[in-house]
Design brief:
By secondary structure, the chain is of the alpha+beta class. It folds into four domains: 64-153, no CATH class; 167-268, Thrombin, subunit H, CATH 2.40.10; 273-328 and 364-400, Beta Barrel (Thrombin, subunit H), CATH 2.40.10; 331-360, no CATH class. The protein has five helices and 21 strands. It has helices spanning 2-27, 37-40, 73-80, 335-341, 345-350; strands spanning 64-66, 108-114, 117-124, 134-137, 167-169, 179-183, 189-190, 195-199, 209-220, 229-244, 249-256, 260-261, 265-268, 288-294, 306-309, 322-327, 331-333, 359-361, 365-375, 380-387, 396-398. Strands 5, 6, 8, 9, 10, 11 and 13 form a seven-stranded antiparallel sheet that branches. The protein has a six-stranded antiparallel beta barrel with strand order 14-15-20-19-16-21.
Length: 400
């Protein structure tokens, strides 16, 4: 057996020497007037990006659609386009019509063509108050805060509680916040209407309304605890009103989404208005990330659930960015190579037996679409707008 292996290595060495002698000849061979192969491979223009490619119509588009109560602009656009977030490319505002940026139940959306390009127009006559049968061109800038009856861009109810809470904090950031030291009658938990006692509140600020938070799990890059830590989730617990200051202060829980525990922290409520004015669009640059958490910790992630991404504003993510979700390809064994290797004469001569086959990683597959609605420096919250199957932690996200 040792003798056979020695002969095999000798043959292999001889083959390598022959290849080395023939390579210079191929390099010095005369070249044609055309560019070298390495350059000609890069010469053709790259495939157009999703934004440069023409807008693709849904082959099952209805031609016309009457807007219904409960519709979203994303949903309506999806009836006409294969990529609903690209509606800005074919919907344009008519400045001569009052509030042309708003769409209401009763409006009739019609697909037409101008110069060979698709255009969506609306015959307005519903709850928006515009003149019936007056044709206007649509704009994606749906400002639902201006007209409560206008349809929203996306299902706002699915993300409303996440627009201003919870928060992402750094390690130790919450340590200086006021905290619940005890509840009335020393109950272990408290809820809406219960009294709790809080240490660390200052009467000098004059603030009496606070939000209650609890330090949640840490977020790691790629959902891998051996990777960089991106921050902690500050879990929203409820709202509180200071009845009297002191050490401790007497506080009433005015609203609780979960039980209030000793050690929960208080923070000043954000005073900025929450907007539902979203403009879905592709990122301006290349974005790469992954799903690292799902709110409320469900095992399978589906449409209209909120996920946490390990890329934020520092990575170029902006509110409204639409990203594709991709699942890593499975690793399979090349059984064809395995079968061929089992009868290879050289392997039989060496007496090594059957080849084990080569592991092959299948390419990633598209699994869904998410839209970012809130950003932090290192992470962001996104709503699952489409899921072709159950999404999972560590699924990658990047430009479509």
């Amino acid at each position: 057996m040792l003798h056979k292996i020695s002969i095999a290595f000798a043959l292999l060495s001889l083959s390598l020497w022959v290849c080395a002698q023939t390579e210079p000849a191929s390099e010095s061979a005369p070249q044609s007037d055309s560019a070298p192969a390495t350059e000609s491979a890069a010469a053709p223009e790259s495939a157009p990006s999703a934004e440069a490619a023409p807008v693709q119509l849904n082959p099952e588009n209805p031609g016309q659609y009457v807007v219904q109560k409960g519709d979203t602009l994303w949903g309506i656009a999806g009836k006409f386009l294969t990529q609903p977030w690209r509606w800005p490319e074919i919907w344009k505002a008519n400045p001569q019509v009052q509030d042309p940026n708003l769409i209401y139940p009763g409006d009739v959306i019609t697909l037409s063509y101008e110069g060979g390009s698709p255009v969506l127009t609306a015959d307005r006559g519903g709850a928006g108050g515009a003149t019936a049968d007056r044709k206007v061109k649509l704009s994606p800038e749906i400002r639902s805060e201006e007209r409560r009856k206008a349809i929203p861009t996306i299902p706002i109810d699915a993300i409303r509680q996440f627009l201003s809470r919870p928060l992402i904090v750094s390690e130790g950031e919450m340590d200086g916040w006021p905290y619940v030291v005890s509840s009335y009658d020393q109950h272990l938990v408290a809820g809406t209407g219960n009294r709790v006692y809080v240490r660390g509140l200052s009467s000098e600020t004059g603030v009496r309304t606070y939000s209650i938070y609890r330090k949640g799990p840490a977020y790691y890059k790629g959902a891998d605890k051996s990777s960089a830590m991106l921050g902690f989730e500050a879990i929203y617990v409820g709202e509180a009103l200071v009845e009297s200051f002191g050490d401790p202060a007497s506080v009433t829980v005015t609203q609780a989404s979960r039980e209030v525990l000793d050690g929960d922290r208080l923070a000043v409520r954000p005073d900025k208005d929450v907007t539902s004015d979203f403009m879905p669009r592709s990122p301006s640059g290349n974005v790469q990330g992954s799903i690292i958490s799902v709110i409320d910790g469900v095992s399978e992630i589906g449409q209209y659930q909120v996920v946490v991404l390990d890329v934020g504003s520092a990575g170029g993510v902006e509110i409204g960015n639409v990203l594709g979700v991709y699942q890593s390809g499975k690793i399979v064994t090349d059984k064809v190579l395995q079968d061929e290797g089992s009868t290879h004469p050289f392997l039989e001569w060496l007496g090594t037996g059957q080849s084990k086959g080569e592991p092959v990683t299948l390419p990633p597959e598209s699994a869904g679409v998410v839209m970012v609605f809130r950003t932090f420096p290192q992470v962001s919250y996104a709503l699952v707008m489409k899921a072709t199957g159950a999404l999972k932690l560590r699924d990658t996200v990047h430009n479509l």
